[in-house]
Amino acid sequence: MECTVRWTGLSGMTFLAETGSGHVVAMDGAPDGGGRNLAPRPMEMVLAGTGGCTAYDVVLILRKSGQDIRGCDVTLSSERAEKDPKVFTKIHFHFLVRGRNLKSNLVERAIKLSHEKYCSASIMLEKTAEMTHSFDILDDLTEPSTA
């Protein structure tokens, strides 16, 4: 896996990251650090990537478990160290999983497997941050789309 990050110019603190898969993502700094608030901060991207990594796992595990999953949101709340390096010290993951007749024990198992075995990002961040998890299940009573 590769990524190239390029500063966009002499004014401001905007960077463009081009991933090995050919996608481009902008990042910017806070105005008090020379940024112009034009894009997410790099550490916000770390948090967002971790959320994407674990949500991907949860959906995949629930599908493989035969669950009728129709949605998965994860909200991450974090705290960082006050002094440099300002690593994450606490991260709470709250999942809202939507589907039909989802089994609570399988949702809990999927989250646990993601964080203990599959999600590389959360496993790395666990080295500095206390990780906690919670979830809610929302029964989706709508019929599946036939389109």
Automatic annotation (TrEMBL):
Transmembrane segments: none annotated. It holds the Pfam family OsmC. This is OsmC family protein. It comes from the Bacteria. It comes from Noviherbaspirillum cavernae. NCBIfam families: PRK10738.1. InterPro entries: KH_dom-like_a/b (IPR015946), OsmC/Ohr_fam (IPR003718), OsmC/Ohrsf (IPR036102).
